[in-house]
Amino acid sequence: MDPVLLAGLCAIVTAGACLHRVAGIGLGMVVAPALTLAIGAEAGVTFSNCAAVVTSVVVLLVLRADVDWPHFWRLAPLIVVGSVLGAVTVRVTAASWLDVLVGASVLGALAAMPLTRTRFTVHGRTAAMTVGLTAGFLNTTSGVAAPALTAYALAIRWEQKSFAATLQPILLTANLSSLVTKAAVGAVPTDLVPWWTWPLVAGAVCGGVGLGSLLARRVSSRAAGRLAVTVAAVGATVALLRGLLAV
Predict the structure, then answer these.
(1) 95-119 vs 146-155: helix crossing angle, rounded to 10
(2) pTM of the entire structure?
(3) Where, by residue number, does the polypeptide cross the bilayer (predicted)?
(4) Alpha-carbon dihedral of residues 51, 56, 59, 63, nearest 10 degrees?
(5) Which residues contact 11 (CB under 8 A, 6 or more apart)?
(6) Is 96 exposed, middle or buried (0-12, 13-18, 19+ CB in 10 A)?
(7) Mean pLDDT (whole number) for 5-31
(8) In the structure, what pLDDT confidence band is assigned to residue 10 with cuts at 50, 70 and 90?
(9) Which residues of 141-172 are buried (b: 16+ CB within 10 A; e: fewer)?
């Protein structure tokens, strides 16, 4: 792998992990669109899934006391089912359409967040089923489940501290499911990156989380969340336009 590209990938992962630690979300939203532009949708999303597994484990260790485990178990099986549907979609979809799917999915999920905050309140199992399936599908196809889950949290008025903590095992499940299901259907690139880059990626994640822990004392989670949304929107827009031009 080109050293400049590798350095860029690690920098993107570090930034995403930092925002993830401060805001509770951010890694997938920042990393998946950026890596889609750098190395293609199929490889970029899979790389993002791998980095998100490490990030979720590290952040979960920090926030584990506030996890709402009953809520996690309500969503986890549905996320796995959604991942299976997403893996099949990745397997049969052309690269240019994957760019479109990544861009449109991220932008659509981001657009739903403020709408849900101001206009809707939902209850019941139907909402949980819908968001679980959607999050699993989006995470597998576009590497971004957090906006859909955040929209759901806003709609049910889920307390932020508990949501941010519970999101970590949810994202861990979503990203592991994405990797396993894509491997099962042959949708994971076999030459994604050399094996020796993974310790560097893990180090970038840990460095980002450590930096985020320091910044969390000075930067509000709302400000970090706004930055993550802005970066994700720019990356998703470019990916969408690139895909549309290539179709």
Answers:
(1) 20
(2) 0.81
(3) 34-63, 75-94, 100-116, 128-154, 195-215, 227-245
(4) 170
(5) 204
(6) middle
(7) 81
(8) confident
(9) bbbbbbbbbbbbbbbbebeeeebbbbbbbbbb
